[in-house]
Amino acid sequence: MPSREARDPDEAKTLADMEEYGCHILYVLEDDEHPPFAYSVGIEYNFKAPELVVIGLKPELSQTIINEYCRRVRSGERFNVGEQAPGFLGGGFDCQFGAVHPDHYPEYFGWDLWFYNWPVFRILQLIFPTTSGVWPWDAEAGEWFCKRPPLLDQPPLPT
Questions:
Q1: Radius of gyration of the chain from its Cα atoms, rounded to whole angstroms
Q2: Dihedral of CA 123/129/135/136: which sign?
Q3: Coil, strand, or helix at residue 21?
Q4: CA distances (Å), origin 25, targets 37, 81, 83, 146
Q5: Angle 38-50-153 (CA atoms, 0-180°, nearest 5)?
Q6: Domain boundaries in the chain?
Q7: Going residue by residue through the chain (159 aa), what tens digit of pLDDT does each one get?
Q8: For residues 65 and 24, is the Cβ–Cβ distance under 8 A?
Q9: Are 82 and 153 in contact (CB under 8 A)?
Q10: CA 129 to CA 20: how far, in whole Å?
Q11: What b-and-e string marks burial along 88-110, b requiring 16 or more CB atoms within 10 Å of the CB?
């Protein structure tokens, strides 16, 4: 493990979860600028596969998805940018994996930055369609859905 010593109970919990479960999952509540999101810490270290972020879903579903991803990479399965995969969402929907631009790391992935000591880790974004099968990039996707799970493959827009 990168040389990390827990300085407080939250850091100790993160390290213990990584050792016991293969990763620690953080869920960040919605605020004025971001929808809620969850992300992993430790998958890259433990299984040499990218971390995962899920944006715009409820805590229980986000955590279930990340745990399933961790289970699948632990068993040797690998996922790539642009690839669709079944089994993460109910109802027979596939999801797709997207790239995350490193310029988003400071805003979204503070615990990964702490653990890996800056951006030497990879992270994939799980992208999902609506229940009607519409993807965020489809012409028929509404503005709300396009922004609800923002796609992180491009650098953030200047403010």
A1: 15
A2: negative
A3: helix
A4: 10, 21, 23, 25
A5: 70
A6: 9-147
A7: 555 677 889 999 999 999 999 999 999 999 988 899 999 999 999 999 999 999 999 999 999 999 999 999 999 999 999 999 999 987 788 999 999 999 999 999 999 999 998 878 999 999 999 888 899 888 888 877 777 788 999 988 776
A8: no
A9: no
A10: 32
A11: bbeeeeebbbbbbeeebbeebbe
- 97 is written with which tokens? 């994996």
What pLDDT shows up at residue 159? 64
The phi, psi pair for 104, rounded to 5°, reads -85, -15
pTM above 0.90, yes or no: yes
Instruction: Provide the sign of the torsion angle of the four alpha carbons 5, 10, 16, 19, taken in this order.
Output: negative
Q: Which of 113, 115, 18, 122 is nearest to 70 (CA)?
A: 18
- Buried b or exposed e, range 35-63, using 16+ CB within 10 angstroms: ebbbbbbbbbbbbebbbbbbbbbeeeebb
What is the tally of helices (H) and strands (E) in the chain?
6, 6
